[in-house]
Amino acid sequence: MLNFKPLELEDRDLFLRYLGNYEFNTYEYSFLSLYLWKDYCQVEYGILEDELIIKKTEDKRGSYFMQPIGYAEEALPEIIEVLIKAKQEDPSFKCLFRDIEEPFLGKLQELYGPKVKYFEETPVFDYLYETQKFIHLSGEKLSKRKNQVHQFLHEYNYELKDIHHPGVKEDCYQFSKEWLKNKEVKHRELIYELEGIKNVLDHLDHLPAIGMAVYVNDRIAGYTLGEKVNRDMAIIHVEKGNTQYKGIYAFINKTFAEKYLSETAVINREEDLGLACLKKAKEACDPLRLEKKFRVNIQ
User: Fold this and answer.
1) Does residue 12 sit in the same domain as residue 67?
2) 115 shares its domain with 22
3) In this structure, are 138 and 266 located in the same domain?
4) Buried (b) or exposed (e) across 67-79, using 16+ Cβ within 10 A?
5) What's the average model confidence in pLDDT over 238-264?
6) SS3 readout for the chain
7) Model confidence at 1, in pLDDT bands (50, 70, 90)?
8) Range with the lowest mean pLDDT among 58-72, 141-155, 184-198, 245-259?
9) Is 232 within a domain?
10) What is the CATH number of the domain that holds 181?
11) By the number of CB atoms within 10 A of the CB, which of 119, 187, 235, 299 ranks highest?
12) Total tally of structural domains belonging to the chain
């Protein structure tokens, strides 16, 4: 029988043991990401034999499973059958899997052939960027962002502080509250994000998080929070800036990559959620590629 429990901080070591050298190209499976969004996505997990099974439940998307983690190839058919049965017994499930990457989709197709029905979930494709290009802002497409960085450097007296520096995480949380307060439209997801940010900042010493805040004239002007999931890839989970400071986002992006992520090959800046403004901003940074994610049912 497959039993689930809500994700908590105490589960960190278990997840890190299963994830090992992070083999995913999307941000969804990172423990830090799951912990950040644990309340919004109602993240739960269970152990099936020796495989880690993650279940999410969202208001509009219903319940679904992520890719099983730590499975042996020969055990996969039995695992999938258990998950199919669990879906059939739970009316909250609208589909079997979400957040599925292409390699696992391929395995399902090998096992089930045309019974696999899948859909590309374009709004949640991840934006991946070449780290060195992101740092140097090389190429014509990034010339505008390079100018924005120069403008910030020219106009403001700034200071950088690591997020672990005394007082910085408290400043970041207060900044996040003000940032949300000033949003004209407060999407439900942003309200949950604020709570997730508080959870991460409150337990920063127990999470694999790295971050940096920018201060202008001793007042916080923006910050970013991310992690390095393996030798090749970093993930940016949170970026907040006060746009009264011209070029703040371009400066934060470049400087964080330069000072914290320069040894990685790619930076994952997550999805655009189908929001035109976010899509435009992420495309303007000249992505290396978009990493696909799929919704999958097996009939």
Assistant:
1) yes
2) yes
3) yes
4) bbbbbeeeebeeb
5) 97
6) CCCCEECCHHHHHHHHHHHCCCCCCCCCCCHHHHHHCCCCCCCEEEEECCEEEEEEEECCCEEEECCCECCCHHHHHHHHHHHHHHHHHCCCEEEEEEEECHHHHHHHHHHHHHHEEEEECHHHCEEEEEHHHHHHCCCHHHHHHHHHHHHHHHHCCEEEEECCCCCHHHHHHHHHHHHHHCCCCCCHHHHHHHHHHHHHHHCHHHCCCEEEEEEECCEEEEEEEEEECCCCEEEEEEEEECCCCCCHHHHHHHHHHHHHCCCCCEEECCCCCCCHHHHHHHHCCCCCEEECCEEEEEC
7) low
8) 184-198
9) yes
10) 3.40.630.30
11) 235
12) 2
Q: Which domain, by its residues, includes 180?
A: 127-270
Check residue 233 and give its pLDDT.
Answer: 98
**Do 121 and 131 fall within a single domain?**
no
Q: What would the pLDDT profile of 105-132 be if each residue is shown by its tens digit?
A: 999 999 999 999 999 999 999 999 999 9
Residue 193 has pLDDT above 70, yes or no: yes
| Residue 12 forms part of a structural domain | yes
Residue 82 confidence (pLDDT): 96
Q: How confident is the model at residue 155 (pLDDT cuts 50, 70, 90)?
A: very high
Residues 206 and 140 in one domain: yes
**Is 241 part of a structural domain of the chain?**
yes
Q: CA 54 to CA 30: how far, in whole Å?
A: 12
Residues 107 and 147 in one domain: no
Structure tokens at 257: 């990559």
Query: Which of 97, 125, 153 is the C-terminal boundary of a domain?
Result: 125
What sign results for the dihedral spanned by CA atoms 20, 24, 30, 34?
Answer: negative
Residue indicated by tokens 């035109």: 276
